[in-house]
Recover the amino acids of this structure.
């Protein structure tokens, strides 16, 4: 992909060589504008969506995990089992009823259908991850806070939440990467070019350029990977630490 990004368009599909015989930056210039908008607009949309989803997952999944790991209430084990089963449910099984609901609420063509589920703790994988981490935190810390007069929420906010940093960082990294690369959900809900994200813009770029779009698509795909590479390079040590400390004990 990186090599093809610097090849002339007529050589992308005809010259399989890893070492290009001709080099050009024309693909980057041609691909910077999609549907009459500069590509940085789509970068901004993807960034807004990714940050919103990160906030939603950190807020909702951490609270849900704390309740399932620490609080005693009726049918707690059954709720946790339902959470685990929902991991196996493919998104294609729920996308149609979800779309109907958001369409009736007149929320299609906004970021809300993509962000709101995150604030409702629908990503069961992160709930399971945090539950396993919280179970490894000594309960004596909770009991000491209760003795000092703290309620369940204060115990969570002042004791559990600060100790969950590795799990929270892991959730942040995966949420960012998955949201940035998501195509199916964003294609379903985002129709106005002004709120397109990077994956939709790349798809539109190929369609608009027809047979000449391969090189342009490769060039802008390379550009679209830069934020993920930088983010992962910065956070990889936290990712490894989070996975190693949130696994089954």
């Amino acid at each position: 992909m990186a090599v093809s990004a610097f090849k002339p368009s007529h050589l992308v599909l005809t010259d399989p060589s890893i070492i290009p015989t001709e080099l050009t930056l024309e693909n980057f210039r041609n691909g910077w504008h999609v549907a009459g908008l500069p590509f940085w607009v789509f970068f901004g949309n993807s960034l807004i969506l990714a940050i919103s989803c990160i906030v939603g997952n950190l807020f909702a999944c951490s609270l849900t995990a704390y309740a399932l790991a620490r609080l005693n209430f009726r049918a707690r084990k059954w709720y946790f089992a339902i959470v685990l089963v929902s991991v196996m449910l493919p998104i294609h099984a729920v996308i149609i009823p979800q779309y109907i609901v958001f369409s009736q609420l007149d929320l299609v063509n906004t970021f809300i259908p993509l962000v709101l589920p995150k604030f409702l703790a629908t990503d069961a994988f992160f709930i399971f991850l945090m539950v396993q981490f919280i179970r490894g935190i000594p309960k004596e810390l909770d009991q000491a806070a209760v003795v000092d007069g703290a309620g369940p929420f204060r115990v969570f906010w002042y004791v559990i939440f600060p100790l969950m940093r590795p799990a929270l960082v892991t959730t942040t990294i995966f949420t960012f990467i998955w949201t940035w690369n998501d195509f199916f959900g964003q294609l379903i809900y985002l129709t106005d070019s002004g709120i397109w994200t990077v994956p939709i813009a790349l798809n539109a770029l190929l369609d608009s350029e027809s047979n000449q779009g391969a090189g342009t698509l490769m060039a802008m795909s390379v550009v679209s990977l830069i934020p993920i590479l930088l983010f992962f390079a910065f956070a990889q040590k936290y990712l490894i630490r989070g996975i190693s400390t949130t696994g089954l004990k």
